[in-house]
Protein 1
Amino acid sequence: MIGFIKNVCGRIQLLMAVMCAAATASAAPIEHSGDRYIINVSEMELNGDETVMDVLLMCPEVITLDAKQPLTSSLYGQWAVRIDNIGLGLDNETYLTTTRASEVEKIKVCTNPGVLKGCGGLKMVLDIYLRKADNGTSGRVAVSGDSYGKGKAFVSALHQKDNLRLFGIAEGNIARSKFDGVTSHGGHEAMKMNMVWDITSKDNLEFDFSQSFNRSRTVGDPAAYDRYMHLEGVYLRSLSDAGAYALFQFAGDYGSANSLAGVRSRYTDPFALLEFSFPLVNHNLWLTAGVESGYDAQTDRIAEYTNRSRYEDLYAQVDWKVGKWNFMVGDRFRVLNFWMNSLKDFEEWEHTTSNHAYTATVYYNFNANSTLQGSFARRYYNAAYENFIADGMYYNPVVNNIMAGKIYTKDYDKQIAYVSDLKYSFSKPDFTFSTLLRNIRQDLAVGHDNTLSIGASAFWHKGILRLTAGFDYFWQKTSYSDTYKKYNNFVNLKLAPQVSLDNGWRFTSTMLYNSRKAYDSEFYAPANFYADVAVSKRFGKNWLVEGKYHDIAGQNTGNRAATIGVTYFWGK
């Protein structure tokens, strides 16, 4: 749809980690704050070689069908991954399966980030915070390849010296797959550079640059590609030792693409943000408020048209602590102006719409290890547009399908989603248990969808054994009209045992089952069962060798293969 929606979840917001409480020497492995919960990875008893994806398997909200990255769909939602409050800008799968949990301090799971983070629709955010490093330089190089023709390379480096931190990542992969006699090739390369400078004890400056390039080609067809670049600058001024701050951010995105259909397009997304956070009355009552503005231009060079949009946001959130009770309420108001012009001989058109996204959360801390949280959020999709051609043909700017004739514009009502959550968490270093009851009711262009889900995940550690297990049950009703309704129910199951032996040996397996069947698709999609087995061996402090046989069960679409990888660590 509109270009800026692609990256709106990359907006940086700094949130208070502790609301008006005295600092403690350690934290519970899982703790709640506002409308999110925090996995304190450093407080868990991990053996050091688990990946970030291994940790995310402990979250009932994070659904995965391949143990490589969170599943993104209209049903499960869409995840944006960030590092230290900055958009990842890299391949999610490569980063999540290559980065060790020992490199991470904590992960914030933000399931309703519409207010402070400005995410539209059902987008959610995974904020990954790296551990603070001692002065010096460290890093790693990881390469892997499988028996089906896929290969990956990953390099990261971290340099810390007093008040300056430099962090860089470079990655690349190639892929080959064959299905129903058709062979496809793909390639990806990306890099990220980040600088954090503590100018004074109260002033912090950060710059981030990332870029990626993707190319795919099916034998016999022309290649498709896309390029993305992101530049971001952040200035943070601490206003008090209790956590008050002022934040200014400016960032911009640029992208270009060439599709299989020959459609060439490009987009730009600059935006700016100013935010303040400070206590009201006392240190148990806090206000975070800000203003954000952005512009987007998306051009199709073949059809010779440009979609443009401009938005202005005002938002505020109040956090209040009363004993063991915590309350949060927030609202973001957006005014969006959208217009199209330079469409050959077609008329220009313009439309302005406004929307509210709000969240209310209450949670109760039974003790340091046990919390019950309830939340309700109103999310929205930006208004949808249909354009009808005089001769009856149909034009939709989302798919760039240009027809001849005069355009008449119809503005649909904005599509709303209401999300209700009830979550309970219990956590200790050797055992965590998390449950989730969620209901999502969202408007569709031709009706509405209601999905109820019940899920639970647990992580248990005893001696050499570590075990992650969980389930999610979904009940779904989709209403296309007053008379036509479709019902569906299915379950996700996961089991991931790990055994760590002396001398650096580690054996793991992941088994995932999803019973959903897409009967209404053009091709019948059967239920999915994924399984893998892996072994890794540490050689000293610098070398790690891993082998995995994946996609053992289920539908073989060219992914069943043996993979071997080597990682070299250097520095501290």
Protein 2
Amino acid sequence: MKKSILQKWILSSILIACVICAMMFLCVPNLTFQPSIGPKIFYYYNDSADMLTEAADCKEFISVLEPSEKVDSVYVLDYEPYDKSFAQFADLKASKKEVDSFMEVFRAEAKAYYSAKNQEFLSSIGADKNSQDYEIVTSDYSPYVHISYEDKFAFQRYEDEFIDNVKTNSDISEIHVTTPIESIEQAASITSSVTRYDMQDVLKDIGADDQTYTGSGLKVGIMEAGGITTENKHPELSGLDIRTAGDSSTEDEHAERVTRLLCGANGVARGIHSAYVYHTALNSSFIPAMNWFLDNLCLVINASLGFPSNAGKYSWASAFMDFQVRYNRVIFCICAGNEGANTNHYVTPPGTAYNAITVANSTKDAYIRNKSSYEVEKELKMNKPTIAAPGTGVITDKNNNLRAGTSYAAPIVTGIVIKLLGEAPALQLFPEAMSAILIASATNANGQSDKWDNRAGAGIVNYRRAREILKNSTCRAFCNNNDAQNSVVMTSEGFTAKKGEKIRAVAIWSANSKTSAWGDAVQSNIHTDYNMILNFVGSSDVSMIQRGGSTNMEFFVLKISLLVESTFRLDVKQANKKIINDDDYGALAWYIE
């Protein structure tokens, strides 16, 4: 009997102990073993066909290097980004003084935050800024650090210290190790096969001949692959304040032509105060270039360059620019590239950034030029290019030869962006709204039906129609700080349309790009999923169209067939849970034509 009682007591004690242990594991999670999560490491090199090829590992990467070949490594760090709410400006009514004041403080705070964080990281891995074997460049406005090694042997000397020893470092999201990736000027020399397109006619055709707003007092950043342009080099640039920096001080006619189209005496935004031209021969130059542009409070960046070696891909440079738009409120306009007639016809990075306004090249008769790049690799599920603009026959070189290329289409759009900022300064705080306005107000390219076109995007840019959207307040910005699945985050007021008219509507929201994402992970990691819904407003609302997909934009054109003038409303609805805890920023715009 006593033995039986003792056995029961022992058994009860064991059960109680098991329950206590189980409760401790449930209530105190840090008692469980959690292995460190380290960075993904990618190795890329230029193969014999000058295409970017991924190496299986570091050993393979080193085996293809020439002894004197430089090596770049870009660290994407995994700490919380600096995020400051812009919700108070969502009505887009703020004055330039209010916006400038806010941005000046915001950028100073962001710089202090990222500079300190990135320096902490460099100290933690023992990096020496005075080393003769490598050069360190840190982003002052984002979690990116670049280390460039003088040659193959310098990289091998520090491989253990800066690559192997950080493989379990949870403060790093990704490391990209590459041979230097060169950018190219995205323009082609054309003579007899191109029709001259006088700038006066260009401005008239895209509704930009109105000079009420010229970009007066604003600053623009210009990224160039071939070199820089200098003040007073061309008569059209006389009097323009041009600042230069970058890898080379070589004067380049390509840079001069881009600057003339954007803000020269006959350009789109001819009242711009200062143009900051940076020579970015390598994609690693994007980090110091953005430091310079943001330090100088440039509102818009024009990039007439690209990286054909990884056309169609979402590169780290694409992710880097997505970050600048999303978190630093930069408007980024870039040419799509001139690969359209090639087998690999894809848009060139960083035009593959989700948050970029990527520009195709149109002709005088409103066709899209066949050499203009289009589409991206299918797993990205990205609508590129965004929009088209005249870039064929609009500019000549010093020998009076007509030029053509997306390089010359991009500054046309950038100039229109600058003009719109002059009228509505608060658009600076919502790049998504700027994109939405340009898309909703575009006109169909020749041969384009009333839908998104794989070569023209939304169509050809039109400043006059974009201004109508501003005047009629048919654009709304939203800041979504909730995480309520299936909730409506933005609603337009009711608007009317009658038989024969068309409703052009777009909803667009920022890709967060806290870190970059590759392959199948891109869609699941980079942005929240929202839907756009068109409602017929009557005795009871009826949903007419719902657009939903896996990219960060929804778009449609609807021709009204109802017999009587009717009232409609647009909603933006959150389809799934948010990707991050930060606010999501987006915009809704519509145009009745």
Protein 3
Amino acid sequence: MNLNDTNLYVNRELSWLEFNERVLEEAYDKSNPLMERLKFLAITASNLDEFFMIRVSSIMRSTNMAADTSGLTPGELLSAISKRVHEMVDRQYSCFTRSLRPAMEKEGIHFLAYGDLSEAQKVFVDNYFHDVLYQVITPMAIDQSRPFPTINNLRPYIFISLTTPGDEALPVHSVAWDSEENRWRISDERIHGAKYAVVQVPTVVGRIVALPSEEGRFDYILLENIILAHINSLFQGHCVSRTAMMRVTRNSDLIIDEEEADDLMHELTRSIKDRRRGEPVRIEITKGIDMTAMGLLENALKLTDDKIYDIAGPLDLKTWMEFSLRPEFEHLRHTPINPTPVPDFAQQESMFGVIRKKDVLVHHPYMSFDCVVRFLEQAAEDPKVLAIKHTLYRVSGNSPIINALILAAENGKQVSVLMELKARFDEENNIHYAKLLEKSGVHVIYGLTGLKTHCKVCLVVRSEGDSIRRYMHFGTGNYNEATAKIYTDFGYFTSQEALGQDSTALFNVLTGYSKISEWQKLAVAPLTLRSNFLNLIETEEKNAKEGRPAAITARMNSLTDIKMIQALYKASAAGVKIRLLVRGMCCLKPGIPGISHNITVSSIIDRYLEHSRAYVFENNGQPKVYLASADWMSRNLDRRVEVMFPIETPSLKQEVIDLLELSLSDNVKRRELGEDGLYQKPSRRGRTKIHSQIESHRLAAESYAAVKG
């Protein structure tokens, strides 16, 4: 078995694009409510923005590197990405123009061009332009004295070709899209001496403008269409001959030399500003621009043809996310399902009293995240609590977690917070909160050089009589009550002494110079997590070879680490039955005879983002169950501080196992990865409908109802 064969692996970026395609399928799925479909479409656009800003820009910096494990060189990969994304963009806009927009019109939701407005609506739009937009817009000419302006990242602009009456007519090659032949047609035409300008579509006002409309209708116009209808008033003395909408995506991956940075916060603040001036990696532009203007853009932005995306519709589809959430369209969304209170904490008893008696497992968003906030609030107010230690990766705006930590410090508790400043695209938010916590007397630590602290741990130290007891919360997701409503995750409350000792040791490693050679129950990356996982897989392989029960069931966001994949291949070849639930990237190929024939891969895309990480190893009939903050990715195992913790209470172990089985039996939103690399939904013919997320809600509600009587 040659485990270095490139045919055994899928490139991670191409696998990620297939994940985004699965999200796009939800936008096409007519069984989803209309505004949910629009939301899924917006998510695919937002996902692509980040993909280009981070992943594509990283590959562009690595063009001299060797081929990856799938056999693709960086140049070959960029070509494959460009081809796949161009196809995806076409499908996005086909979904919007041919499916979603007609469906909205059936619901009385209309997006109008200026020429289609009623007289009253034109008066409204004209007044809005002159009273508001005209005061905000800044036309920027492009000529010898005024060089090409900086085009801000992800901002919509109007690119304008101008002529001056009386100028000598000049031959200009122009290009226009022939929709019937599905290709560009180039022709010669005469345009008076062309000049160019750009206008940024303002982002300080809403892009979708509601219009006065009749009862039962919802009429809107896009901001750029208002500007285009009045564009000549911005260039008096000239004629606007052509316009095109454009949007540039720039490299936004922060590269910081932490070894050389004297002040990490200052260096991050400076680097965040540099994002606006990153190298362009993509331009989206509406069809119809002339070739001379296109050449000007390509030269100014240093873009090649493969980085140009011709758009047949409104730029920036993620705009529709906010629109889909408007209250007037509540009837076009899923009926809200409120999280249930956690049954074990349903009484008024102190949470510390409950956790002292038993471990508690929480399944979000089916069970409320309020229990985590209450845990910290009670710790902040409890006179017996001496100290709180907390890791934070991503928190919400106006975070109740932050407020509770500040209250604890003001009440005289010893509060220490490891705030990860390098959480991508949350750097500014985290810097703000770090400063706020420090001002309140909290000891703030910014993590370890070269590592991101991604683990989710809260440790509360409490004086009880003549002894000290430690109470912990471990999680698979962030301490963010906003995302906890839309991400599926596990939380675990415990006061086990061994886990308390490990948690104390973990914070000593994070905040000081302590070195731990051995952990009692936790597995911690980058120290022991990889070796623990490999040992667990190898034990299953050994058991299979010796004829004992051997199986692995694992749920994660992504599976890209080659050493982990190779260990799974070896286990599969030995006879271990392996079932994987991988929401996003999966570089493993199932179904290869003699190698991965015992491996199945499933992915669930649904109303909630599947975010939890859970790992079950059969262990010769005595299953070992673990939850973790880590996926099976190299970055999680080698370049981040991650924590895996065991679930040992028999009833809680079974609960995790049952929930994984429920997901694996889903025949509504689950897709199975085939040997051909394509994901397909399983057949429901003759089978009872099983929708795992809806069923998880029902189970949580039943558990709470049983406690309330």
Protein 4
Amino acid sequence: MYQIAMYGKGGIGKSTMAANISVALAKKGLKVMQIGCDPKHDSTRLLLGGKAQSTVLDYVRNTPIAKRKLDDVIMTGTEGVICTEAGGPEPGIGCAGRGILTTFDTLKKLGADGLDVDVKVYDVLGDVVCGGFAVPLRGEYADGIILVTSGEFMAMYAANNIMKGLSNFDTGSPRLIGILLNSRGVVGEEELVRRFAAATGTEVIAVMPRDKLFADAEGKGHTVRELYPDSDISKAVDEIAQRIIDVSEGKVECVYPHPLDDDQLSDLAAGREIRPGGASGVTRHPCGGCTGCAKRSIKDTRIMMSCAAYGALAAYMKMNDFAVVLHGPESCLYFMNTSRSKAVLELYDREIFDVAPAQNVRCTMMDDAVSIFGGVKYLEKAIDDTVADGFSRIAVVTTCMPGIIGDDCVSVIDRKMKQYPDVDIQYVPTDGDVVGDYTDGFMMAASNIVQMIDPSVVPESNSINLIATSFFDLHSKKHMQELERMLDRFGLKVNCRFIDETTSSTIQNFCKGTYDMLLTDTANNRELCDMIHQRTGRELFPVPLPVGRYDYEEWLDRMGDLTGKREEAEEEIGSVESEYAAFIDAHRHRFEGKKVILLNKLSYNIDWLIDMLLDLKVDFVRIACQPNPRRKQLAAVSRHIGLITQDYDSDNLKKDISENRPDLIISDIMMPTDGVRFARVGKIGLGLKPSLDYVEYLENIMRLPNNEGWKKGGII
């Protein structure tokens, strides 16, 4: 496969040229893919009958990792050209260059590299060759580069900058095919561009006239090459396509460009003889001449406590034999450490905290200078030092900064894996706001960890795997004892807790477990199960670890059938029914007829609570869920789905409170309640007893006066 990157100033016509060239290559019998790398996402429009294509970045923003498919981000256009668009952030928000990095990474993960393609054409904005937009200049993406320019000074200035960017990604072989002049009708235009080409050591490979055929074809949503195949324009496009083919076959050589300095560009613009250039290169210190490790005070404490990088770090912190290299600023590590008090973190290469030397989290300590000059040297050193400390499994987690500046972390990791063949280095690019929040980062890390499972391992009898993004419910002696009691009844033990305080070996032997069981039935946990199913083909046990009477009885019934211990199951079911019935009878009078709003943010399955409140005869004003706006497609998981109002927002809540004056609001979201009693619901444990304890907690809240009651001295 041969890869072409077409660069040029915005509005110079490179998208039009790219689409025409793609059609010409396809007509010569080649299988072509065109990738639009411009936030305008209009590169492939002329290949799709004038229709705009959905972008990869919008897809990443709105689709969970486990549900992403390559077919969702590609379309087939004219002559079978495969089309995809990167897209970009909101105008004035985020980093569009970072979007290119995310797009390429997403396409790779979805299997785009496996498509049957002869030529890839990258259409790239080239006004400013920042780290993100320079990605197609890297050797793994561009075998050849074509610069599109006109005779206008800023167009040639942009082309000159792109040549400078190309020199910073030298692969050891020349890659500049030449300059495509897209005429604007400037006086002496062709002569000026040919002078520029000669001065920079390249040539003009084609001259496109300023012709109304372009506007006519674009108005119809097609390329000139498609609608007017016998035109002079189409003949010129065919010559470019043949030039690309000849270069790919080694019949024509590329060149190393010699970009002009500012004085030389001034000579070119003024029509003077271009003076000889200055120094050919500049030696940079890896720290960029910064003040090194000078300490800075943090004056602005406003932070996002739930970023994707933190989620990825938290996932790998559950892997006891992994070290995490956090590629980012000291502040990121500090706030993650503050949030995760359980972890003892080492501030990498700084004597700030008095900690034991062998910790499993490091930070590359990126600062302002690194954000300008790049941080790959710091990442290399962090990996080297982590290996020297004896770790053979390393997770590299990136924060926003390396993504914004375009650090080529993949190349660093590739080099280090070759340098240390016995070390497993896993990469989680959780940089930039496109990636998302804590859960998104956790799932990205989990998708890596899932790949460690060995599907060929044979299941052993009498063991289960527990699956969840959080095992908070089991992090107490009481809950662990209850789990052991429940499993002992059926002669079962836990094989793997995915993912919680485990090791790589345990993950690899995940398939030893007889059954795979959800710890709690949530949308996030089901997404995790989908990943495992795709890796192993194993089916999920139909009932999660139970909470409340009805789930517990169903769990007992199914476990009795599967393990052949029906008698034990029936005995426990009888005990549960008796205890539950007595409890409901004793407490129904406190709840019967009370108006209740139950609001859940899809954090937990609360069927057990709906069941109990129905049995207690409450009057439900509303049962609703308020999903995360970044994960809109996640629906509530419930056997009471018909009772649940989805996409319920704060305005709906205010209206319900005003119109119905409920006696109690129960929610996993802390909020003002306008004088209405409020109870928080969360993870409570497993089995029957925690659900009964929670109802007693609700009863106590119902018995206490609300705010207005305090003023009036009234008690319910």
